[in-house]
Amino acid sequence: MLKGKHIILGITGSIAAYKAAYIIRGLVKKGAEVQVVITPSGKEFITPITLSALSSNPVISDFFSNRDGTWHSHVDLGLWADAMLVAPATASTIGKMANGIADNMLVTTYLSCKAPVFVAPAMDLDMFAHPTTQQNLERLRSFGNQIIEPATGELASHLVGKGRMEEPDKIIAVLEDFFERGTLLKGRKVLITAGPTYEKIDPVRFIGNYSSGKMGFALAEACAVSGAEVALVTGPVSLQIHHPNIRRVDVESAAEMHQACQEIFPTVDAAILCAAVADYRLDNPAKEKIKREKSGDLLLHLIPNPDIAASLGKVKKDNQVLVGFALETNDEFQHAAEKMERKNLDFIVLNSLRDTGAGFRCNTNKVSILMKNGERTDYPLKSKQEVADDIVKQLGSILNARI
Ligand code: CTP
Fold first, then answer.
1. Residue 306 Cα to ligand 1 middle (Å)
2. What's the CATH code of the domain at 149?
3. Which of 57, 66, 136, 209 is catalytic?
4. 363-392 mean pLDDT
5. How far is it, in rounded angstroms, from Cα 162 to Cα 159?
6. pTM score, whole prediction
7. Residue with the nearest Cα to atom 4 of ligand 1?
């Protein structure tokens, strides 16, 4: 998977810099081409001679070559890369990357890099735990960068805690896994619905639900990272997309979501319906703000919304895969199996509100996947990103088995 891949390895000033030598060796052994970019303080910990001998490439540290004045183009380097890995990444470099402080070649290259970026932090436990570092890492995550979490163990300070850079073979495995996943949905088009729908009561009020959209957005990212072109039809959420292969279509009501899905579905290989669509809407939303009556109840007359999943299930072609979700509170497996049948789904992802950490607004989820042929896989509690990866693996294996 790493054969022929162009990897920029950014090295910063940390005791763990010696491990970068093992990373280069491992990457080169697997056929990757490595270009090292090192910060000035990185050179205090490991010499460019060692790094250039291992990578068979000159090591870049300055904006210009001191010898002949050649400009080192961080722009060209950023475009050359299939991935950039910063390992070890100090708190200082993470802070600079998070805030665009481009005062060295490594950070300028990072800002020019269009390829996916991986960051392997290395620092003392208290530095790692500090809210500044955590906020900077969160910011990098929000840019779509992947943080390779440090391990817990003995640190340079002889204290024991979380902050030790992950071992080189594990870091290399993360990159391999990334490139392997990039082929799973290559050339595929996927439609994803996410978030809640809002059904108008009057110009200032609506009927909504607690869906945050996190699961649907994680799925969109996971499909895009796996090589798919994604259309993400989302209800009102406060989330951002990061991957360039995701086209976001914002809608508000179930009717708008339905229309967008009907237009897009004929053009895709698969649809994952993750949105919490309101089952009912007002038959006649008020044109003006409803005023409080002095006495008496307010009655709202609700009519059914279209079932988007069922309507796509009706027109689904043999080569298309339709995936639904079921959020249940009781008789979970029975309800999920009925929904799969009723909506003509290929598989359904079940989560139960009885499981702690599953469902709305959490960052985690605990799911079971039920297949049309009756097979069932139960997964442990995982982050929504990891759950998305599991779902994408299932989807990929069905689509690829059909070729
Ligand atoms: N769904 C949909 N359109 C709707 C309702 C649901 O596309 N109007 C999709 C959801 O995105 C999900 C699946 O259908 O993939 C199941 O949603 P859920 O709300 O659990 O099912 P309902 O059919 O609404 O059944 P109930 O509310 O009775 O549990």
1. 10
2. 3.40.50.1950
3. 209
4. 91
5. 10
6. 0.79
7. 307
